[in-house]
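Q: What would this complex look like in 3D?
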Amino acid sequence: MGRQPCCDKLGVKKGPWTAEEDKKLINFILTNGQCCWRAVPKLAGLRRCGKSCRLRWTNYLRPDLKRGLLNEAEEQLVIDLHARLGNRWSKIAARLPGRTDNEIKNHWNTHIKKKLLKMGIDPVTHEPLNEESKPTEASSTSSSSHANHLPESKNNHLQSQKTDNGIPNSEENSSCSPLTENCSGDEPLMSSFLWGNESIPPVDGSWEFPSDGLSFNDNNIGLPSWDEDCAWLLDCQDFGIHDFGIDCFSDVEVINTLNTLEMGNKQ
DNA sequence: AAGAGGTTCAACCGCTATGTT
DNA sequence: AAACATAGCGGTTGAACCTCT
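A: Here is my prediction, written as structure tokens for the whole assembly.
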């Protein structure tokens, strides 16, 4: 059809990003905001495809990203949402603040799939693998009644309940499932930070990022969305690792970003 | 200690959806 | 309405890392 490639293949670098490239991209986006990814590489002085820049930013450099493995509450939420939405990773990720679709997809394929299989649950249909499948020893520690928790999935998987705007109504069904019941878990600090004393992840609107741009939790910092106004970011120019727009983000966001940058600098 | 095999995850690719002209 | 441009999504890949023998 003669459609142009997303970028000029000649002279476009591929493969892992260097700390220097990361810095350039971060600096550019903090200065100019997210717009026109196709133009970003040129303007930011990167020999990368715009697509690659977008991916790097959304999956790794965004200041609001959480790092590390999903905790059990998040994992359970992913399972529940997957039961309703299927492999719509971006939709699932939209319900988990600070997590990316890529991260969730990877976690699903490497951890959750196996976990479900071990429990005798088909990770695709969320139904028991066979009528008489019995949970293994290991799985019985997680749940002895996981099947009871999943039936809702069956129908919703094919015909997910959606609100008027297309967002599935998970709130009303987000009952604490067997896995979640175990979520006292490995990361009590993280869990308590994320969900407070709740065993159910808060899937309320205040945590949601609008699809048209990042809007940090305005309940606590009252920042404009990135699309509304990026002027507040201008002071972040020429940042060093330790002056990365500290005031702009919540503590965790700042820590995440600093960690990201510092990790990058070690490469 | 070292090699083999398995696992993880960042990044890429191709496709689709949506917006613009 | 058609053609094109761009953003975003989901599947796949491959290098780095880990574990086992």
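A: To summarize the key features: The domain at 72-207 of chain A is CATH 1.10.10.60 (Arc Repressor Mutant, subunit A). Residues 14-17, 49, 51-52, 55-56, 59-60, 102-103, 106-107, 109-111 of chain A lie near DNA strand B (CB under 10 Å from a C1').
Q: Very helpful, thank you.
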